[in-house]
């Protein structure tokens, strides 16, 4: 029995990686990588601190702040800051663990990390949010830097919050440096950064469509999207631009479902973006004739026939039953815009279909590959900051497209190399992406002395790999 508390989200992220590595030929060809997995699964550093701030009534409030600096083998720790009442160490460790391999798949020199607080920005005034962000950054500032750890935004942290935090860091450390990404365009931000995760998701799926022989791409495809934040909004806009029809959006309270042939329009998305900026609910937008609002449900079992699904809200938003419903509805492609958007049971449904039905099956892409466009452009923002340059929209978009293409083919070709398959099967993108990201990080760690494969380590690797990780595989 482990002496560590249960961390269900982190355990799930670890198991997904472990199972795909174990069920490939990687460990057979390279048994020493079992040792690397033991090392990679433990963060280099976990920082926890209190955040004291004053509300508008003058009362003292206190929250927990965190930064998980998980792995720096490929570069400075890189990953977002999340402000949400659900934030705890398990969630941040899962996000940081995923971030290691996601960042590796971009091809950029970035390590993996994640942070945030259980502070809830909903219902707070601008002044309360500013006071919280300043207090949070005063504590965090001593542990981050442009060459050490470069946080970004995440749930609850947009341009406003990044601005408050950047200003606090600059005053606290007396440095104007690229310590945060997602900054304003007038003070070091990058064009395409708000759009990057959603656009990159669509670019990635475009390569899936092309590989599968879908000659008309997105044209006339029915696309179900969850979420209504930046990722969902910009994914929807790009799908519409490329000729697809968006049939759903959602938030934590319910879903908007298309009722006619028109689907979600760019005008709808603009209005929803404004609504969300003011922290409103999709239920306030239910009067539109082309959309109906369903309270308390996710969209997957309510959208009818669908060709492509893009979970873009939060973790574990597609269950086994919802995965089966998507398969029954004719869905052929699913790619995560959110981190760990599908449960392990849902992934099993998709992977079993892929193996059994081959080219007629649904094809699943994990978030660490499909949604890496956001952190990729964050990395490009870091490069621009280092050079004191600002690239054009066209330059950044071109680089984003190339990064998503490389992420797709890394996963595809690695799956062909390490995952046994029968003729006609699509390569497993979840296995290929996991292995490609893992191997890149493990090699860097080995060459810099974080682990080594002498005889003692080889003997240790024969033992249960999870014994030092605190949970069973």
From TrEMBL:
Pfam families linked to this entry: ELFV_dehydrog, ELFV_dehydrog_N
Subunit structure and binding partners: Homohexamer.
Keyword Oxidoreductase: yes
GO molecular function: glutamate dehydrogenase (NADP+) activity
Keyword Kinase: no
Full protein name: Glutamate dehydrogenase
Limits of the Glutamate/phenylalanine/leucine/valine/L-tryptophan dehydrogenase C-terminal domain: 190-449
Record SUPFAM superfamilies: Aminoacid dehydrogenase-like, N-terminal domain, NAD(P)-binding Rossmann-fold domains
Keywords, sorted A to Z: Oxidoreductase
Catalytic activity: L-glutamate + NADP(+) + H2O = 2-oxoglutarate + NH4(+) + NADPH + H(+)
Family indicated by similarity: Belongs to the Glu/Leu/Phe/Val dehydrogenases family.
């Amino acid at each position: 029995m482990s002496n560590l508390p249960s961390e269900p989200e982190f355990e799930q992220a670890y198991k997904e990686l472990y199972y795909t590595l174990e069920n490939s030929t990687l460990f057979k060809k390279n048994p020493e990588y079992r040792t690397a997995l033991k090392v990679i699964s433990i963060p280099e550093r976990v920082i926890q601190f209190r955040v004291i701030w004053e509300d508008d009534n003058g009362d003292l409030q206190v929250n927990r702040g965190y930064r998980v600096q998980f792995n720096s083998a490929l570069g400075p720790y890189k990953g977002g800051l999340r402000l949400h009442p659900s934030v705890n160490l398990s969630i941040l460790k899962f996000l940081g663990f995923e971030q290691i391999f996601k960042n590796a798949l971009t091809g950029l020199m970035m390590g993996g990390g994640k942070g945030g607080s259980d502070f809830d920005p909903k219902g707070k005034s601008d002044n309360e949010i500013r006071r919280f962000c300043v207090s949070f950054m005063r504590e965090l500032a001593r542990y981050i830097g442009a060459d050490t750890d470069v946080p970004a935004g995440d749930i609850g942290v947009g341009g406003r919050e990044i601005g408050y935090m950047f200003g606090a860091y600059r005053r606290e450390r007396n440095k104007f440096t690229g310590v945060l990404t997602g900054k304003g365009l007038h003070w070091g931000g990058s064009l395409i950064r708000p759009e990057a995760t959603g656009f990159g998701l669509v670019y990635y799926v475009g390569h899936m469509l092309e590989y599968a022989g879908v000659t008309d791409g997105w044209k006339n495809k029915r696309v179900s999207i969850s979420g209504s934040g930046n990722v969902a909004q910009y994914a929807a806009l790009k799908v519409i631009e490329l000729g697809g029809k968006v049939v759903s959006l959602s938030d934590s309270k319910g879903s908007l479902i298309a009722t006619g042939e028109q689907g979600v329009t760019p005008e709808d998305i603009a209005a929803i973006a404004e609504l969300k900026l003011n922290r409103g609910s999709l239920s306030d937008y239910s009067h539109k004739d082309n959309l109906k609002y369903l309270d308390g449900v996710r969209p997957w079992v309510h959208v009818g026939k669908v060709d492509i699904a893009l979970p873009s809200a939060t973790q574990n938003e597609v269950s086994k039953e919802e995965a089966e419903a998507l398969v029954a509805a004719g869905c052929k492609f699913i790619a995560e815009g959110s981190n760990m958007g599908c449960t392990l049971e849902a992934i099993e449904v998709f992977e079993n279909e892929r193996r059994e039905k081959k080219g007629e099956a649904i094809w699943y892409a994990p978030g660490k590959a499909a949604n890496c466009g956001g952190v990729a452009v964050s990395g490009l923002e870091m490069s621009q900051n280092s050079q004191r340059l600002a690239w054009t929209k066209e330059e950044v978009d071109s680089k984003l497209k190339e990064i998503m293409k490389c992420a797709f083919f890394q996963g595809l070709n690695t799956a062909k190399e390490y995952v046994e398959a029968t003729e006609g099967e699509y390569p497993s993108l979840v296995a290929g992406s996991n292995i490609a990201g893992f191997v890149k990080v493990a090699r860097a760690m080995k060459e810099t002395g974080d682990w080594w494969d002498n005889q003692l380590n080889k003997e240790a690797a024969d033992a249960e790999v999870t014994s030092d990780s605190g949970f069973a595989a």
